[in-house]
């Protein structure tokens, strides 16, 4: 681990003691998957008529495009409406309430829609008992609610997750006595994953953890899990997100610390939270792309931001900051290998530490950069690199890319820390 009063670029790192304390808390965290339950049962404070979505909480009328479509579909799915018009009225009348996922300790992928009946993974920090939650991966289907599409196929898939996958996975996790996630993450980084846009190795390693109990599962549970876990490489992303949230939460409340503890965006804005300022969101414009790989037939005019909280992985030293560990992504979103290595190398300039457990082989097993310092970001103008999926204007995923967070929220956060 490297923690110094001077960053790699020669800039002074303020609040050194507070930042050191913050990242040491993160390093000590050992996130563990302990359950798969319905959101209503698992998430403290979750209400039956509450629907969670990505980004700092906004009034319903401010949600637009695919994120709004996902919220409308969620209200229909939960039985508060039979069509979009009725769903609009339900939100307007307060019969359905929308909140940002992280307001309740959850994290959401893309639109981030989480409803009371949906199964969520429950990841716990054994040291503190703190928990974080994330919905299950919807698979590789074209019609996914979190990509802004609600159709008969979407509903059928959500019902299958609710009726079969969630319960089967929950029983398997209980039989295992829980699953330690940090060793999987650390090893996957040495196998070509960065735990955001690429989770191929991590998903495979997780399946191996479950193999020991497969013989004890019912035939139906074993079949359901085999079909679900072996049909896509992105399952582990949801575990990585919840694990990252638990790890990031350990840094919250360290007075004077200028280290970022959360990043998230909606269809309208990007927000960050900082260790020294608690639950306050500092908000700014949406990210901008610097590299994209779109599916055939799509152009930049087809891209839409409809939210995203998977960037919590970048907060703890994964995702975009660890691009150099995931060079296979150059074929799908990252650009050239040289560009990916350069992005990771640049991130050391705005982070306060190197992770002692998360290491990058191509950099001679150097620890991933971790601990975004809002003061250094404000001073240098260098913002975090984000690996994200690209949604289409009409819904669905149309590609993947590399984005940069906007500067404004970090400047606002740095000013707030300075006032302390």
Low-confidence segments, given as residue ranges, are 1-15
Strand content: 15-25%
- What would the average pLDDT be, to the nearest integer? 94
The helix content, as a percent range, equals 25-40%
Estimated radius of gyration:
20 Å
Supply the CATH superfamily name of the largest domain: Enterococcus faecalis V583 domain
CATH 2nd-level architecture of the largest domain: Alpha-Beta Complex
Instruction: Count up the domains.
Output: 2
Q: How many strands?
A: 15
By CATH reckoning, the class of the largest domain would read Alpha Beta
Provide a count of the helices.
Answer: 13
Could you spell the SSE succession in H and E letters?
A: HEHEHHEEEHEHHHHEEEEEHHEEHEEH
SSE class? alpha+beta
Describe the 3D structure.
The strands form 5 sheets. Strands 5-4-1-6 form a 4-stranded antiparallel β-sheet. A 4-stranded antiparallel β-sheet has the order 10-15-14-11. Strands 7-8-9 form a 3-stranded antiparallel β-sheet. 35% of the residues lie in helices and 20% in strands. The protein contains 13 helices and 15 strands. The chain has helices at residues 16-28, 39-42, 65-77, 84-92, 152-176, 182-189, 200-214, 219-229, 235-249, 312-315, 337-347, 374-380, 408-419; strands at 32-38, 50-53, 97-100, 119-124, 131-135, 179-180, 260-265, 270-274, 282-284, 288-294, 303-304, 351-360, 366-372, 385-392, 397-404. It is an alpha+beta fold and 420 residues long. Strand 8 and strand 9 form a beta hairpin. The chain has 2 domains: 16-28 and 253-419, v583 fold (Alpha-Beta Complex); 32-241, Enterococcus faecalis V583 domain (Enterococcus faecalis V583 fold), CATH 3.90.1710.10. Helix 3 packs across helix 4 (84-92), helix 5 packs across helix 8 and helix 12 crosses helix 13.
